[in-house]
Amino acid sequence: PVPILETKSENLTLGGAANVANNLVALGCEVHLVGAIGQDEKGDKLVSLIEEKGIFSKGIFRFVHRPTTSKIRVVAHNQQILRIDKEDNRPITEETENRIIKYINKALPDMDIVICSDYRKGILTEKVFNAVTHRAKNSKKRVIVDPKSSDFALYKGATIITPNQFEVEKAVPIKIQDKIDLDRAAEYLLNLTHAEVLLITRGKDGMTLYSNKEKHVDIPTQAKEVFDVTGAGDTVVSVLAMALAVGFNPADSAWLSNMAASIVVGKVGTAVVTLNEINEYLQEEMFRTSQTVLKLEELKKIVSLAKGTGKTVVFTNGCFDLIHGGHIEFLQKAREKGDLLVVGLNSDKSVKSIKGEGRPIKSEKERANIISALRYIDYITIFDETTPEELIREVRPDILVKGDDYAIDEVVGREIVEGYGAKVELIPIVEGLSTTNIVAKILESHKQD
User: Fold this and answer.
1) Which of 318, 321, 316 has the alpha carbon at shortest distance from 437?
2) Residue 360: is the preceding peptide bond cis (ω within 30°)?
3) Domain for residue 4, yes or no?
4) I want to staple 257 with a disulfide (CB 3.0 to 4.6 A). Which of 44, 136, 196, 239 is the partner?
5) What is the DSSP string of 40-77?
6) Structure confidence at residue 230 (pLDDT)
7) Are residue 141 and residue 227 in the same domain, yes or no?
8) What is the per-residue pLDDT for 438?
9) Backbone φ, ψ for residue 207 (5° rounding)
């Protein structure tokens, strides 16, 4: 029997390095694409589609002697059942190498970051890659490599390498059976390539970020539904590059790229993720986490991501011992000042230092549980110091709020926030309501009894 396929519709999409470029454009980046394609009808369509997307195509060189790589994916009921490839994977000629290198040397200094998508199609030769890393080093630009070769020595000079676990297994003399083996493999590859960062994507197990400077970071998968993993790796490297280019650190950039991948695998075919989709996902997931009380490092990551997507972060602090109406009204008004309210809660040790013996009335755990139930508060972190100055330096809120029983000049942390361009705002407080007054009234009542 011969299978017969009836065509319902056809759709042209960008693939390979062009899909990486397409992802970056969808994220609002200016992208210059470099590569080689055929002087054929498919090449004409490819260039037309690239330019239609707003991708700069002057770095695409065309040749009669090699066809444009194409892949026909046959999909039925959202399931890929067949792929037909047409390509020539022979290395490009020395003349072509020189033309590409000439373009790279001219264009690279004006770029923020460089991505080498190695699909082993004969374009990213050793000579071309070495030219990229040499020019990038002299121009102080980072180079991200999405590898395909099992010989990672070829990628010496890269700043960040983003293999999947299968690619790692092929590249190391270690049989990977568990996470400990993976950690050893990552260390081996970091030593071999001298890369600063190795980001290993691990399918259903998320991804792990390894660094030659810091402890590794495990990032669990966030995908809710998986329809198609085609191009998910391209999305990871694209979002990673974008985040690094705008100032995110590697760990936060990896977290964001993992989140973007969880969005794109919920789509069918080679797809992209937009900034709006990322923003919506952050709203739904990150800012609605079931955890409200966080350690400082976790909080800093969330604040960084929030500010990176244009959110206004408000910060206040206090003991919040015996919650009263004044507290609730103050926190409500504080939340109205921005998109995210972070509360620095004095620890038991801190409260005792400030208020003396007999305080706090409630333990830090009880106080944190009580105020975390208030819908106005997004996150709480507990600090031991008598003042929140160090916490403010770490969190770097956009707005620092206190009650108007303080003068602006008296607000602890004012100089810190104003020093980096943020501001201090005062909120009217309810007269006569304070924990100290409540405690005094309770004690007086007991005396009368």
Assistant:
1) 321
2) yes
3) no
4) 239
5) SHHHHHHHHHHHHTT-EEEEEEEETTSPPPEEEEEEET
6) 62
7) yes
8) 45
9) -150, 160
What are the beta bridge partners of residue 86?
A: 70
Structural domain span for residue 329: 296-445
Instruction: Note whether 380 and 351 are same-domain residues.
Output: yes
Q: Distance between CA atoms of 111 and 398, rounded to whole angstroms?
A: 30
pLDDT of res. 145: 96
| CATH number assigned to the domain comprising residue 166 | 3.40.1190.20
Residue ranges in the chain whose pLDDT is less than 70? 222-231, 268-270, 283-290, 430-449
Q: Are residues 171 and 275 in the same domain?
A: yes
Task: Please give the pLDDT value at position 171.
Answer: 94
146, 228, 234, 252: the active-site residue: 234
| Claim to verify: residue 370 and residue 271 sit in the same structural domain | no
The SS3 of residue 158 is coil
**Residue 380 shares a structural domain with residue 236:** no
398 labelled catalytic: no
The mean pLDDT of the chain is 87
Q: Does some domain include residue 393?
A: yes
Residue type, 423: K
| Domain final residue, candidates 284, 317, 338 | 284
3 state SS of 161: strand
Confirm if 104 and 135 have CB atoms less than 8 A apart: yes
For residue 81, the model assigns a pLDDT of 85
Is residue 110 domain-shared with residue 208, that is, in the same domain? yes
- Proportion of the chain in helix, strand, coil states, percent, rounded to 5: 45, 20, 40
The pLDDT value recorded for residue 226 is 52
Of 238, 259, 284, which residue sits at a domain end? 284
Domain count, the chain: 2
For the stretch 188-238, pLDDT in tens is 999 999 999 999 998 888 899 999 888 898 988 765 555 445 668 888 999
pLDDT in tens, 268-308: 666 788 888 887 777 666 555 557 889 898 889 888 888 87
Residue-wise DSSP of 308-371: HTTPPEEEEEE---S--HHHHHHHHHHHTTSSEEEEEEEPHHHHHHHH-TT--SS-HHHHHHHH
List, in order, residues 6 or more apart from 62 with CB less than 8 Å away: 36, 37, 38, 39, 43, 47
In a shared domain, residues 96 and 69: yes
Residue 82 within any structural domain of the chain: yes
**Largest alpha-carbon pair distance within the chain?**
101
Q: In what order do the strands lie in the sheet with 399-403?
A: 379-383, 340-346, 313-318, 399-403, 423-427
